[in-house]
Design a protein that fits this description.
With about 220 residues, the protein is mainly alpha-helical. Helix content is about 75%, strand content about 0%. The chain has one domain (about 15-205).
């Protein structure tokens, strides 16, 4: 429990003391908003990323008095962001569990295996005609549909499956990070909206006599 700060003005008149943990509450909220800002930037392709960006900028650009006034709205928006981010994280995991990357790899393998040999000859001839950086992509395509077409298509499908699974797991992790940071912001904003830190007992007042005794 934080101790209250005892202060008095120059005239020695009694002054109601501010809680020592008030500034700590604002700092804690801004730290959580910074983490939320980072996770929101990497999730901007989803709606929760834009909402999180608005909430984080609102917290970081507000002064302490304004932050207290906006605490309830920050709490509500952060809760909405956390729900959307958690849903997106589970959606990515469900796509991995349902075999979506494997299905995509199988589809690519099927399309790759049905490429006519005549088309391969045309692309391979174009790749041999140019050796610049611009046309190296054609050479890569020619390798994919080379005479060892079946083996090349299997390797391509395998790479797409593994890469797709990795990207979906990465998206799930980033969405879960946004969920955790949004919950942290909502928790701290709720505490701030309720009055910051509550110290049990009567409020401490620094009277002239107290100041003299402390001196």
């Amino acid at each position: 429990m934080s101790k209250p700060l005892m202060v008095a003005n120059e005239a020695g008149e009694p002054v109601i003391v501010a809680k020592a943990c008030d500034e700590a509450s604002h700092t804690s909220l801004r730290r959580a908003a910074t983490a939320m800002l980072l996770f929101s930037i990497v999730n901007l392709k989803h709606m929760e990323g834009w909402l999180g960006l608005v909430v984080a900028i609102t917290v970081l650009c507000s002064s302490s008095p304004d932050l207290v006034d906006k605490a309830r709205r920050v709490k509500c928006l952060s809760f909405v962001v956390s729900v959307l981010a958690l849903a997106a994280s589970f959606m990515y995991l469900c796509m991995v569990g349902a075999g979506f990357p494997a299905a995509l790899g199988n589809e690519v393998q099927l399309r790759c295996s049905t490429i006519p040999a005549a088309d391969f000859e045309v692309v391979y001839t174009m790749a041999e005609s140019y050796h610049s950086m611009t046309h190296r992509a054609l050479e890569a395509v020619a390798m994919v549909i080379s005479p060892e077409q079946e083996y090349a298509c299997n390797m391509l499908a395998h790479c797409i499956t593994k890469m797709g699974s990795a990207l979906l797991l990465l998206g799930s992790f980033l969405s879960f990070g946004l969920f955790m940071s949004a919950m942290a912001v909502a928790k701290r904003a709720c505490r701030l909206a309720r009055g910051g830190c509550h110290v049990q007992g009567p409020a401490v007042v620094a009277s002239p006599l107290t100041v003299k005794e402390m001196a």
